[in-house]
Amino acid sequence: MFGKKKQQPQIDKEQLELIENAQKRIKQKKRLYAHFVLFLIGCVLLIVANTVLGIGKDFTIAGINWFVYAILIWLFLFIYHLFNVFITHKFMGKAWEQKQLEKLVAKQQARIDTLKEGLKKEEELQAKSEVFDEMNTPKPNLKTTKNSQLTIIVAAAENNAIGKGNQLIWHLGDDLKRFKALTSGHHIIMGRKTFESFPKPLPNRTHVVITRQTDYKVPLGVIV
Prior knowledge:
By secondary structure, this protein is mainly alpha-helical. Among the domains are: 76 residues; 75 residues, Dihydrofolate Reductase, subunit A (3-Layer(aba) Sandwich), CATH 3.40.430. 54% of the residues lie in helices and 6% in strands. It contains five helices and four strands. The protein has a two-stranded antiparallel ribbon. The chain has a two-stranded parallel ribbon with strand order 3-4. The protein starts with 12 loop residues before the first helix and ends in a 14-residue tail after the last strand.
């Protein structure tokens, strides 16, 4: 039987970068620790060389033995090394922070572009839906729609003659009765002179007066 190959875990670029930076950081701290140990051993050797072995015993600066200045100089170098590891070069460093910031900005921009595309698609779907609804909305059938009717009644007598002796019908009793019966509940359209010939507007009717006078005054309920 063939043995199954073990699948090695895949490490993406960001994880690999973190591992590399962590390894670099460990090396920096190891060097700092080695420097500190070397500094302690060096200080002891300098003190022994001057005080025990008598090396440079007679050499002093401002009345202070030379090994003191040597230790101070070395201490300054160690402090500089310490500052460089923990302050100047942090765990990831400025370059790494700038790179991560650029990645975040790129991801945010990609997210914004994705949202814009989603909004465009949503607008297109909404527009298509509105068009579909308009197309499927049943239009009113003009044939079955009840049309409003306009009734035109001419002031005619029973013999269909208008007036008698060139007189208006409301001066003729029988014709006026027939006119009132026909026009009850309807609009009456007439000219200004015809309207003025009425003693008063007829009840249960809407009077429509046609005139060229823009300031013509009529009673309430009369349309000009």
